[in-house]
Structures are given as structure tokens and as C-alpha cells.
């Protein structure tokens, strides 16, 4: 690549350390199975069927409010599970096809590789899995990479003729604006899903922090001296929402993205001294 860095750095956003990326899961069915420990022969069973007896017993012992909450959990899991079931067969067939032909899944095109042919369906389902993970408290941290750098994705449903990366080199065009708006709509979709999930007196979104980040300000100029980002959620009341903050006039040392990450870590109760190249939190004022 022109930056002389490994493409691993543009294809992963979660890392164990500076040189070891966390393997990502692109298949919705496998992400769902990992979330709910759905292994071996259990993959052919409904998660709700396995938990039905326990859930029924619990439902008889809790308050009306908690019963409604339990029903909400069960409905959310089942709705996603039904969509996963439709995709599981395609993923398994793709794995068998890869073994027979010796062709790596990564070298196959959709839907031969077992991924949904319609990327809208794929992205929305991955957002739903993240929302479900937060709602059921299976995890409290998730990263979601919807598009890699130098992406060759096409968007015929947006009337975009160029692939994503090519379109990004004309970042003032109507075409690229439509692509960007589409990705922001996915962020909004996830936020709305979490906002509709109750958690005590608040919503799951109120108790979360969603961060939507691009790695470049201008694709036509390859300008990454500043980056646009969106945040949603109050993180349990620790983040003030409804604001536009501009850091472009600050010195580089005072507007590091890693300083923002360090700030979020502190608000989540992780008192780290540093993160990446930042040793101080981002000062908002």
C-alpha cells in the first residue's frame, strides 16, 4: 500500500497490541453463535428453546415490569435468531465449497462466500447483533467495521456508479455524499435500536457511548490532519449530548483522537494512564 503499512492496519479496528489485530467476524451467523456460546450440535437448536423452561420459571417470580423486560429480551433474541437461521445454510455451503475447491472464502464474491448479497441486509443485521449484545449484557464493548479502507464495495441502490474507494477521491461529489449519508444512517439505526431498549429508568443508549469515526477528512487530498466523528449516548450521564465541538484550531498535542479514547475509558471506570499516543484526556472546554 502507498503508506508502506500493512493492509492489516486498514482492515482491523480492534487490536490486542500494536502489531496483533483481534480477528474479526464477518459472518452474522458466527457472530451470533459466538455471542450466545452456540457451538457444535447446539447450532441447530433455538437459543430460546434451550432457555424457555428457565425463562418461564423466572417470569413467574418477578414483578410485572421485570416480566415485560424479560419478554422484550426474548422477542429481541428470537427476531435476530430467525434472520440468522436463513443465512446459516449459505455460510455452511460456502465453507464446504471452499474446502472442495481450495479457494479461500476471502477470494470469493457474494453470495458464493456465504455473505448476504445485499450489503444493506448484512450491515443492518450486524448492527442488530451489537444491539442485542448490549441489551442482554453479553458484552459491554464492541467494534464494528462496516467498510474497509480501499473498499471495492458498490452501491447500486444509491445510484452510485463508482466503487467506494474510487468515489472517495471525489469527496465533494453528490455520489460520495449519498454513500456517506448511507453510512451515517447505519449509525443512526444502531442508536435508535438502543434508544428503544429500556434499562431501568433509562434506555440502553443512555447508558452507552456510540462512536462513529472516519479515518480521513478528505479522500481527494488524502488529508487526515483532522477527522469527522459522531458520538451518541450519555454513558450513564457522564457525557453531555446535543453539542457540536470543534477542535481544529487546537495544537495537535491537544486534539489527539487517542485522548478522546482515553477520556471515554475514564468515564467507563477504566483509569488508564495512557492510550495509544495519548497520555492525557481530551479537554472539552
Which labels suit this protein?
single chain, 285 residues, mainly alpha, two-stranded antiparallel ribbon, 8 helices, 41% helix, 4% strand, globular
Distance between the termini: 38 Å
- Counted by DSSP, the helix tally is 8
Dominant shape: globular
What portion of residues belong to β-strands?
A: under 5%
Low-confidence stretches: none
Provide the succession of SSEs.
HHHHHHHEEEEH
Q: Order of strands across the biggest sheet?
A: 1-2
Description:
The protein has helices spanning 8-11, 28-35, 47-59, 64-101, 119-135, 164-168, 174-195, 257-267, and strands at 198-199, 202-203, 210-213, 229-232. The protein is mainly alpha-helical and 285 residues long. It has a domain at 25-144. The strands form 2 sheets. The protein has a two-stranded antiparallel sheet with strand order 1-2. A hairpin with a 2-residue loop joins strand 1 (198-199) and strand 2. The longest helix has 38 residues, at 64-101.
